[in-house]
Write a structure and sequence with these properties.
By secondary structure, this protein is an alpha/beta fold. The protein is built from 15 helices and 17 strands. 36% of the residues lie in helices and 16% in strands. It has a 7-stranded mixed sheet, with helices on both faces. It has a 4-stranded antiparallel sheet with strand order 9-11-13-12, covered by helices on one side. A two-stranded antiparallel sheet has the order 5-10. Helix 5 links the parallel strand 2 and strand 3. It binds pyridoxal-5'-phosphate.
Amino acid sequence: MNKTETPLADAIAAYIAKARRRGHMPGHKGQAAGLLSRFGELTAWDVTEADGLDDLHAPAGAILRAEQLMAQAISVEAAHFLVNGATAGIQAAILAAAKPGETLLLPRNAHRAAWAAMTLGDIRPLWLEVAQTAAGLPLAVTPRQVEQALSAHPEVKAAFFVYPSFYGVGGDLAGCLAAARRHGVITVVDEAHGAPLPFIAADKSAARLGADLVIDSWHKSMGSLGQTAVLGCNRPGLQPERWLTLLQSSSPSYPLLASLDAARAAWQEQAAARAEHLRRVRQILADALTGAANLRLVGQGDLPAGFTYDETKALLYSAAGHSGGQIAGKLRECGVEPEFAAGGFALLLLTYADTAPKQLAAALSAADAGLLAVTPEGAPNPAALPLPQQAMTPFEAAHADCEEVPLTAAAGRVSAGLLTPYPPGIPAVGLGEVISAEMVEMLQELLNAGGKVQGVTDGNVMVIK
Ligand SMILES: Cc1ncc(COP(=O)(O)O)c(C=O)c1O
């Protein structure tokens, strides 16, 4: 196979060149009129399953070939293109790995897509707590935790891991996967934030470490368009594509699909240069913050043994104890919009497209100086609370009668939805879990501090009657 081949992008370009009158969707018919003119050529590329353009749900032509090239690039037996983000891939993978009534082992920092899958598929969660550093940085589950849980719960059918986390922390995935294998458990790895791994550190990628199903969120760091991601499968008998067909749109966006094809080819051509670029950007930022008054860059030295830091991120904290929100505020004043700020951290994603690292470094230095005039304030940390008690399964909670009550009156009630501080977007309370008095206080504190909690609308939450 020619690695720089882009079969799907080429097929669309060839279709456009035929200049056929479009008797098909989308209704703009390729004309970039009015507001759409801002999208320029993209509108012409916005086609559908026309002659020669294959079908995402039964790929046999250009899409199949593009997926095969992707599979080869990321070391999986089969790759499936996703147009509803890693979210759809996580849902399909979990639904393929466990049947109704079966149990899924998963860390408490799992993305809400895992909640969706458990709710749709009537799958029971068995949670693993995720330890934090003294500074409140969530780590990752350990092989020991996995081994203990699987020994105590032989009913577990599948295990889900997050690697690396949204914050950039990776655990001993090889050890966790080995423990799962010893117990005959199917493994799903949410590598949403580690999509560059197969290209910049292939031996550390979840697929190479032996995961059965791996989800990479390409739009986050690889240069494809928003919502694109890839589900990789190393155990074809699981057939996650059966679930994807049920979960994904019947009208997938061709610009999104073609952007995956193009981004994969670019990475294959430039992997070494991009890996070097990422190292250089990180080093420039680290150098700029050496001797800074407040701002620090989280690195390997901030983590206990057994955890690794993902160097494609710049996670900032303040030595003086400023909150992530305060750091983000200063960054914005200095012209930088972070990916997220939560607790005591603000995160910048670093990618191949950070083409002006010196300017970015200068902005970080300016933000650091600006923080000197800001009195540090702490930030609430809902992940530090004990695991909520589970009163019913997510499936039961989703089907139970519910009512709206003020958050302030919700202590002791069973949540009918997800209460998710955003960012970082990890549910603090899930469907079927009891909302504790401490949690009410914590969420209230977050809201009072100007934070957002998805699932709280006008101060109200949905609870089971
Ligand atoms: C750890 C993790 N997994 C999965 C997702 C979902 O990714 P996507 O936005 O591609 O659906 C996110 C989103 O931020 C995430 O942080």
